[in-house]
Every structure is written in structure tokens, then in C-alpha cells.
Amino acid sequence: MTAPQVFEVEVPMIPQPWGRPPLPPLTANDRLHFMVRSSRTRLIREEVTQAAKAAGIPVCEHLTVRLHYAPGDNRRRDEDNLYPTFKAACDALARGPRRDWVGLELVPDDTAEHMTKLAPVIHPGPGIRRLWLTVEVTR
User: Taking a C-beta distance cutoff of 8 angstroms, is the pair 103, 96 a contact?
Assistant: First the structure.
């Protein structure tokens, strides 16, 4: 039995005005206009699709995916707030239910049969803000 392959895939951040650090594209606390929310969701899908292609993740039967966020400071944050971003990123790895959705089709669907979604993790501490997925491929 071969060991599973693990890949890192960058997830886009939203730049802020006046030199403020970037933010995750979607959080559970956002109260965005539906067009802004839709454009951010599409941005996540497109960017994660491109990053996963560049990483060379192979088509498989099952993926284990986890979202990581390094906020660059020690403020308290809830991991649950990252689920809207996580969902859009997972959609980018699986076949989309509609033709207008961008999806890489690494697995047939993002259901539990084909994708295990582990809870997001926040890595507090000083440093550069970063948002990324770890994708483990099991054949």
C-alpha cells in the first residue's frame, strides 16, 4: 500500500484599502450584497482550480481536505467562520452540479463518499497572512 500524497493549495485573500492586511474572501459573519458574495465565491473557485492544477493533484476516488488560516496576529478567531470559504474551495476540487461552476473534477462529487472535509484550523502568531488547503490524495 502506498502512502497518501499531500499537496498544499493556496486560497486567495481579499486585499484591503489603505495598506491593511488582506482578509479571507468569505466568512460566516459577512453581510455582503449577493453580487459581491457571488464574485468572491467565483474568485475562490477559479483561483483554487488554477492552484490545484499547478500543484499537479491527480484525479482520484477520495480526497481529504483541510483549510488553514494564518492571520498574522494573536487575536481570537472562530474556525467556524471560515466554512463559506472552505465550501467554495472544496467545490473547486470536485465536479460542479451546474455547467457554469468552475471545477477541477478531481473527484466525482464533494460528498462524504469522495471527500473528507476536516475542520478548518487557525494558526495564530505573527507573520504573513496566508490561507491554504492541504489536500491528501488516497487512491
Answer: yes
d(CA 82, CA 85): 6
How many domains does the chain divide into? 1
Model-level pTM?
Answer: 0.89
pLDDT tens, position by position, 81-90: 999 999 999 9
- What CATH number did the domain enclosing 120 receive? 3.30.1330.70
Provide the domain limits for residue 65.
5-138
How far apart (Å, rounded) are the C-alpha atoms in residues 124 and 98? 37
pLDDT attached to residue 20: 82
Q: Where are the beta strands (DSSP E) in the chain?
A: 5-10, 62-70, 115-122, 130-138
